[in-house]
């Protein structure tokens, strides 16, 4: 062990205190984070401790979960928070605490519970060099900041795609813009172009000729009239169709225990829980289980195509209304289902965003164990646009969703790098100064 590395108890490094009660009815609207056992739970108008700071889940299923708050905050009584770092770097302590399995200190029976006095004697290997502590914290924080940035970008990009979808296919804004322009004796095509682009007519004239022509072509795909249908007013020329006529719904395969646990293989075999993995918020870019091609062929597991939307079809997970898009041919278990677009009738990203607008809870059957009635799902009526407009939407949405996919893949690489570096940096196996480009 290097001379500046030593064994110390947690009680020598930090002081912990139980958080403070703040019933929801006593919270006042504000910008101060309220931190609980699983991290951020809301906001208040008053802080009782300064940030940056660390909280550790004290009770329940989130016992032992470690969170970091950058600003002043209010720690709830469901967590412990650090009141004294005893000269140690805060970020370093945060990452050190994240390596500890706090389940070993559980003092509860029916419900998990964490006592700070049980934590204090636990011994850890640390560097006493404050500069080295700071470097380790900075390296790991840089990775997490990049992860957070990518996730924020992904949320923004998906929000943009959803806004376009809603404008075109739910609210019919370009169609309504044309109708209003006709009634006012104005140019309906220009009105639709303004609606689609969010630009004024003056700004349209400043566009390049190619961009203007492309926008003009898009606007021409929208009609200038609404007609009555069984779903109310819909754009003229669009159809009222059933969901089952524009996509194929395919159930998953039984995933027996003997096939589970393999992390190597060409084909992901995903379960409902894989949708919750970090990085899989929109696209499935990783899985807990894989199998090889030979087993897939031998067992005749159904391969679900790249671009299909997958979701839970049974159990509590169904109620969460999660949808995910496959990035490669994938096997899904029999608690899931996929929806694949029918050529000439739908497109992958249109179908994904369409399914996100449907509340599966309204279709759930069963009480003890909720399940999705697929026949009801197929019968859902939708307003179906022309294929030319669907293709145009796919061209607009594709760059947004592809960027999300690339960011998700990058996040998976960053998570792997962080998880590999974390124990090695905190044990001194890797010298932080080398990673920072310093020597000596």
Instruction: Please report the number of helical segments.
Output: 13
Please state roughly what percent of the residues sit in beta strands, choosing from under 5%, 5-15%, 15-25%, 25-35%, 35-45% or over 45%: 15-25%
| Number of strand segments | 23
Alpha carbon gyration radius:
27 Å
Measured distance between first and last alpha carbons: 17 Å
What helical percentage do the residues reach?
A: 25-40%
CATH class descriptor of one domain: Alpha Beta
CATH architecture of one domain: Alpha-Beta Complex
CATH homology superfamily name of one domain: DNA methylase specificity domains
Unreliable stretches covering 5 or more consecutive residues? none
- What's the overall average pLDDT, rounded? 92
The outline comes out as globular
Which secondary-structure class do the elements indicate? alpha+beta
Q: How can the largest sheet be summarized?
A: 5 strands, mixed
Under CATH, the topology of one domain can be stated as Adenine-n6-DNA-methyltransferase TaqI, Chain A, domain 2
What's the arrangement of secondary structure elements?
Elements: E1 5-9, H1 10-13, E2 15-18, E3 32-36, E4 39-44, E5 53-57, E6 66-69, E7 74-75, E8 79-84, H2 90-98, H3 116-119, E9 123-127, H4 130-170, H5 173-183, H6 188-197, H7 201-205, H8 209-220, E10 226-229, E11 232-235, E12 239-242, E13 247-251, E14 267-270, E15 283-284, E16 290-291, H9 293-299, E17 309-312, E18 324-326, E19 331-332, E20 336-341, H10 348-356, E21 364-365, E22 371-372, H11 374-379, E23 381-384, H12 387-427, H13 432-435
Helix pairs in contact: 2-4, 4-12, 5-6, 6-8
Domain Type I restriction modification DNA specificity: 3-158, 235-385
GO molecular function: DNA binding
Family: Belongs to the type-I restriction system S methylase family.
